[in-house]
Fold this sequence. Notes:
The complex is a heterodimer of chains A (251) and B (248). Chain A has helices at residues 2-25, 36-46, 50-81, 83-96, 104-111, 115-140, 144-152, 157-192, 199-208, 212-240. In chain A, 35% of the residues are buried. The longest helix of chain A has 36 residues, at 157-192. Chain A has two domains: 1-33; 34-250, Orthogonal Bundle (MetI-like fold). Chain A has ten helices and no strands. Chain B is α/β, with parallel strands linked by helices. Chain B has a domain at 1-73 and 189-248: 3-Layer(aba) Sandwich (Rossmann fold). Chain B is 35% helix and 23% strand. The N and C termini of chain B lie far apart (40 Å). The A-B interface holds A 143, 145-146, 148-155, 159, 163-164, 167-168, 170, 242-245 and B 50-52, 69-70, 73-76, 78, 80, 82, 84-88, 95-96, 98-100, 127, 129, 143, 147. The structure holds adenosine-5'-triphosphate and magnesium ion. The site of adenosine-5'-triphosphate has 14 residues of chain B, from strand 2 and helix 1.
Amino acid sequence: MKFRDGLTSLTSITVFTLLWELASEIRILPATLPRPIDVAFSIYTLIDKIPVHAYHSISHFMAGFAMALVIAIPIGALSGWYHLVRAFIKPIVEIIRPIPPIAWIPFALISFRNDFEASSLIIFIGSFFPIFTNTFLGFSNVPLEYVEIAKTLGASDLYILVKVALPSSLPSILSGIRTGVGIGWMCVVAAEMFGPPGLGLQIMNMRYLHDISAVAAYMLIIGVIGFILERIVRIVEIKTLKWQKGFIRQF
Amino acid sequence: MAELNIVGVSKSFNNLKVLNNISFTAKPGKLIGVLGPSGCGKTTLLRVLSGIEKADSGKVLINNEAPDTCKHKIGYVPQSLTLYPWRTVEENVLFGLEIRGTDKKSSSELAYNLLKAVGLYEFKDYYPHEISGGMKARACLARALAIDPDVLLMDEPFANIDTQTRYYLQLEVLKIHQKYKKTTVFVSHNVEEIVFLADTVIVLTRRPATVKKELDLSTILPKPRSIFSEEFLNIRKNLIQLIQEEFT
Ligand SMILES: Nc1ncnc2c1ncn2[C@@H]1O[C@H](COP(=O)(O)OP(=O)(O)OP(=O)(O)O)[C@@H](O)[C@H]1O
Ligand SMILES: [Mg+2]
């Protein structure tokens, strides 16, 4: 089954590439667009530079994303669980949430001299909200009965928070993390277009050189890394949520 | 073994009166069967007994003290047969001991005994969604027994289980009751089940529930009981008539 799925995915990528090549060959696509073969050649010529830029982008991402995890999960948990915390946190979050991460870029670049911090902030903003919201939802939707069962067995409030509410919210938290990874990674590239070194800046540089194949090559790399990051979260999800009814079948 | 006293308990939700001045006593080690029509307030009564819900008036006493989760241990088998889906059967059964910080060795020994007693040992590593309704009932019973409760409260645990399985589960409840001698309140709307299990039957009226009749079966219907004996069928008939009165 796994093997067949893998084969299907491989086929789909091959067919897509061939169609693209064919469309370029018979001039359906404008000649300014790169062909797959050009992109492949660009990747080949850039192969020694890509890891360096990817490394920059991934470290921006990791810094911002880790910060989002460490802050969003506890705050989301506490405001989902305690009404008073909710009443305190919600108005702040509701006002900041609608500001798109992109709008933070100028702010971040001015307030942090350091490019690394500036781009990490953008990623933090991008991944914070999905993680916060899903953690919040998870904790506020813990079935009352789960809590009551623990109470009759003599559990303290703190014990219930950690041993009942947390595992009960885990599916929601993890899906927030998955969304957070996706949005955070998109923000890396956006943030880097304005200064910090990394894949995003490379796209801009290649644009000034009018090297569209190289632009496409970097875009492809961004796509592949994003895909891998999301896959990693999915694997964690499958491993942690094996108890969930019908979970494995969703993938 | 503990004595459970319910003294004049009343409970309303907003303007809906659910329990009306309910009093009865569960003698140490006895199995009290509470029989009442659907929706009369059986679950509410057990929730008050367990301390999850507060009575508006009247009181519940365990060995003449107000229930306290630190001092008393209450085993509760919920009507929904809810288990934590992220824990295996064994981990669910041991949850109460984990809370109390019992050491690994003695709790795994206890788990072995209990899972054997309820016939779930082979399924100890299954997750709740992988087991049947009857097995869930067994797991909930084992979880309640694991903390060595002073009082065991069971809320129609077999309501949604087929008649055949239900019969075996009832036999097991009797066996377990004889083995562990827990003071038990078993709630059901099923007359046959109550006559089969109870030392004393409490018949409730329809909502707002109050005690309509208290019937001691231990002398007139000694255990083990045959569901086909004349006495059994007579008592069953009388109780059904009592309940039918509630709807005329
Ligand atoms: N938390 C609550 N808030 C408001 N009303 C409630 C609440 N819990 C129970 N009730 C009401 O109390 C009445 C009795 O409910 P309860 O669940 O105790 O009945 P029951 O005898 O257990 O019913 P069943 O046989 O269906 O299990 C119902 O009319 C119900 O609507
Ligand atoms: Mg009920």
